[in-house]
Amino acid sequence: MxxxxxxxxxNSPRGDARAMAEAAGTDYAGQCGICLSQxxxxxxxxxxxxxxxxxxxxxxxxxxxxxxxxxxxxxxxGIDLQLHVPCRCEAVARRFFHPDEYLxxxxxxxxxxxxxxxxKESFAKYxxxxxxxxxxxxxxxxxxxVEQKQNVYLRFIDFAxxxxxxxxxxxNAAIMWQQL
Length: 180
What we know:
The protein is an alpha+beta fold. Helices cover 27% and strands 32% of the residues.
């Protein structure tokens, strides 16, 4: 089973996200022994989800605060990074989250807001539905955020202080980190 590789770079307004994603994908292909018949090119689906010009590789991109990430795999995946910043968490949760999630967050004084947001966004990126789908599904079951939904594994990854990082994938493949 090929690992998932997460590429990390400084989130810079001058950075070329397309070039960074293509460099990440090219490196991943080389690491996995995948021969590319043409230079890798980052495209977008109609939904806005990024994809490469080959069905052999999958990519998901996120940026927040000081960081930019690209997760690459041979299988579909979704990644999301959220910097914990002051916000109107209750109002945002009421508007965008499933009612069960709103109640779950309210019970916790919205302390898990960014964890749930990162989880929902990684899952929505995996499915290709985007944030417009947030109210249509719940990632909360009982007293916790689920670890699996519709045969999709959801993992939280330790990253940096004041950040939430979530990954959705078809399996629990190993995760490797690479600086870009």
